[in-house]
Design brief:
By secondary structure, this protein is of the alpha/beta class. The N and C termini lie far apart (about 35 Å). It has nine helices and six strands. It is globular. Helix 7 (about 165-170) links the parallel strand 5 (about 160-165) and strand 6 (about 180-185). Belongs to the uracil-DNA glycosylase (UDG) superfamily. UNG family. It is found in: Cytoplasm. Its EC number is 3.2.2.27. Excises uracil residues from the DNA which can arise as a result of misincorporation of dUMP residues by DNA polymerase or due to deamination of cytosine.
Length: about 220
């Protein structure tokens, strides 16, 4: 397994990649991928960084775990490979966009088109064992992604952070709210959404309004 992080992130994360915990994490992940089926595929583990250069970040969406079903995870949180059925959380995201912005639900659940516009789709844990949700939690990924969030907070300004659900809100502790725009709501999962904690948050129009007000191009959701 090659740990290949996009060039725009190398200097930002160079120190982190040399830390002992990260080396132990990579040793663990290599072993997991050798002995078990894991997702996403090895070349997609750092896809969030490949698609979205550090200097291009406008929006950060924080997820938790990659999807653990066959062929779903593509390295971007909430996103699935082209041709895959939309998971329930993604359906609710698209429903909110439809209500908020009048954009019809797309056939493809591949969100790389968002990432290419400056939306960092970051899972807190970047890998998972097949059919075992949370199986790679507490191995070091959370520390790594905390650092990613902190580096964005420290080195960029006027980034919109979308924190959906309790887990993402906790990760938000690393964000300087004086420098950045933070929007929070319930998680788009059916459990949360059906209780009224997701629908109507208008995060997508609010994000675009903020970007336009700060002389940035809005996201084509």
């Amino acid at each position: 397994m090659l740990i290949k992080i996009a060039d725009s992130w190398k200097n930002i994360l160079a120190e982190e990649l040399e830390k002992e915990y990260f080396k132990e994490l990579i040793y663990f992940i290599k072993k997991e991928y050798q002995e078990h089926t894991c997702y996403p595929k090895e070349t997609d583990i750092f896809a969030a960084f490949d698609y979205c250069r550090f200097e291009d970040i406008k929006v950060v969406v924080i997820g938790q775990d990659p999807y653990h079903g066959v062929g779903q995870a593509n390295g971007l949180c909430f996103s699935v490979h082209e041709g895959m059925k939309h998971p329930p959380s993604l359906i609710n995201i698209f429903k909110e966009i439809e209500t908020d912005l009048g954009i019809s639900i797309p056939k493809s659940g591949d969100l790389s088109r968002w990432a290419q516009q400056g939306v960092l789709l970051l899972n807190a844990t970047l890998t998972v064992r097949a059919h075992e949700a949370g199986s790679h939690q507490q191995k070091g990924w959370e520390q790594f992604t905390d650092t990613v969030i902190q580096k964005i907070s420290e080195n960029r300004e006027d980034v919109v952070f979308l924190l959906w659900g309790g887990y993402a809100k906790k990760k938000g502790a690393k964000i300087d709210k004086k420098k950045h725009h933070v929007l929070t709501s319930g998680h788009p999962s059916p459990l949360s959404a059906n209780r009224g904690y997701w629908f109507g948050n208008k995060h997508f129009s609010q994000t675009n309004n903020f970007l336009v007000a700060n002389q940035m191009e809005k996201i084509r959701w």
